[in-house]
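Notebook B, p. 112. Complex prediction, attempt 2.
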Amino acid sequence: MSDSITTTEPRQNLSDFYNPNVLVNLGPSHPAMHGTLRVMCRVNGEVIEDSTCEIGYLHRAIEKLAENKTYHQWIVYTDRLNYCSALTNNIAYVMAVEDILGIQVTDRCMWIRVICMELSRIIDHIICVAINALDMGALTCFWYLYHWREEAYTMIEAMCGMRLTTSYARIGGMSYDLPDNFDELMAKFIKGLPKSLDDVEKLLTTNRIWTDRTRGVGKLTREQAIDLGVTGPCLRASGVDFDLRRDRPYYTYPELDFEVAVGLNGDVYDRYLVRIEEMRQSLKILKQCMKKLPKGPLWVEDKRVFIPNKQDVYTKMEVLIHHFKIFMEGIDVPPGEAYNAVEAPNGELGFYVVSRGGPKAWRIKIKSPSLLHFQSFETSAKGSKIPDAIAILGSLNIIAGELDR
Amino acid sequence: MGKDGSASYIPTRLDYAVKWAQKNSLWPMPFGTSCCGIELMSTLSGTYDLSRFGSEVVRFSPRQADLLLVAGTITTKMSPVLRQIYDQMLEPKWVIAMGACSSSGGIFNTYSVLQGIDEIMPVDIYVPGCPPIPEGLIYSILRLQEIVEKGLPRKQMHKLTREEARNAMNFRQAIGESLFESGETGATPSGPAEIKGETR
Amino acid sequence: MSVAFGVIRDRQDQLFLHLEQTYPSHRVLRDKIEEPILWLRSPDELVPMIEALRREPATQFDRLSDITAYDNIDHVDGPKRLIVVYQLYSLQHHTRLRLKIAIDQDESVPTLTVVWGAANWLEREVFDMFGIRFAGHPDLRRILMDERFVGHPLLKEYELEARQPFSDSLPVRIATGFESPEESH
């Protein structure tokens, strides 16, 4: 153990009282709501020489629950992983199960899923930038950006009834189709958000205080980032041009025209710029999606997973029995395994589903990006000061629900 | 006026005035752990402004707050931390258990989740929802203001065992008779509860 | 399809053929979305195999995605109890590979922290949840549960609702440098 303050000899000289090493605990309950993480820093003066991170304060045993709940029942738990962008988690999980079943969803379903994923990317980046700015005292950006988060919540509530924990995706389709007024809501969102982003950029990007506080802070070099398994905006800010949407495309991303934002230095400032640019690119994608959204059936025509319309369930007998079997017994997934990863707002979110047949999974492992990001904190915070450590924590976008699962 | 305010010539008005001040300036200590924390942030931001109800200052220090808003799942690893925060707050203090997870463990009945923070501390208001929408949280703050005004004591919730829950014949039995007894005015909030022992 | 299509699909097929040819004594399978799975025969093969996969220009797996494990209590995947799974990714070819090793509960697996720093916490989590020890890990202790927790939760015999609450928090130790692995439970 290296903490040098546990000394039991009596202090003889004045120099014995001089101990530059102090342990500062950024405890599990701390301001700006980064979630329940704990960082213990060994500080020399004001410079952090060493730090240890402790996690597990929000370990809710979601993976163990996967072995006790059917595949449908577990969709609810996926919302609670990265709760800032719940739609992405739902869709990533459902994609993995559909892979094992060998189901190809309909076109309309694919486009709607892409819309959901890009919308949740925007709201997750809004939280990250707003909280990062809030930590460093720039409170105005929080108010500006949160308004758009509420608008997005209105849209999501119109889609599936719930603001945050959506449980929107189902295996083989989506739970509800898009509402009728969705085009207007989305048009308003696409028109209004860029102005807010411009306002925030005017306040922050060339602001002397912001650049002084974020440039050169929390640098992760290219090699360090790849070595530590960092993905997502943090990896792109370090200069690695890697985006799962473009490099291993899934769903309708090959037909969409968007650019990938890549930074240069890997510090907090670059991560902030990458996120703002990604929000703009997501708006571009959303615009294209709304134009290209096809009409058609939402659900795949597969008897194993098809969830019928409620009107039919209440009126026809066979449909009622089919509905009953799907929800009470669960769908029967053949034995096999699949690992499916999507480009979540935070990075590579993967679900490794192992099935031994039957309605319940044998093992589901959630590959969460935040775990590796938080591990990289120990490397990137070395040599920085305590306020810098707060800035780095904010820029890594660590969501405790995903970190501890 | 005597030291304990008893010989004052307007005792009830002073009492009323103090309670009015307390209820309209509840400074929350947000203990946001998971998803409910995000809805708490939404409540505190511009659209559903919580500072209209007096919670202008969100104090992240327990020593300066009088309302502990526990929003999110509390795990067994986090519960000593939560208890310490509660102990550090000064009287009078109130506790709102926001969301299903802090009220009763929520959807997580697992080996690491505390099934409700009322296992370790007395709670004034439980807010249902997963997560509760901001209007729900605002409603709970208004109800808490009523509680502060009337000075209702915090009753230790009678947790039903599995047998009782199965055999309860109506809603009243299921949630316990004690909740429907009228609260006595003037009583102080009940003292701290003991933390349950190490093994179960 | 959510599975990689087009160019990526071809590359995955090529990778599968390459692995079958290069490692004829190992089992190479494909999962439900045609991604290759390479079964290693013993834990000692792990680090040399990873180094080889990293070096060869045909494979070039330079990124670790995930380390996990699952319980093989019904012995569908062989006679041993636990299967350790490594997910690798190649940033050059954009292909994925899964490595699997079957071990018993008392066997230990060599650590991957010598290759990638990302393996540190991932292996700690596998140790916490399954009890698999990683030989050579700088700081092998529990990460998600309290250190006084008894048992390993994700094994099938551990009950879902068996809580073990503690009434205080343990102090955090700062471990600098490479010290001997913790002896916990």
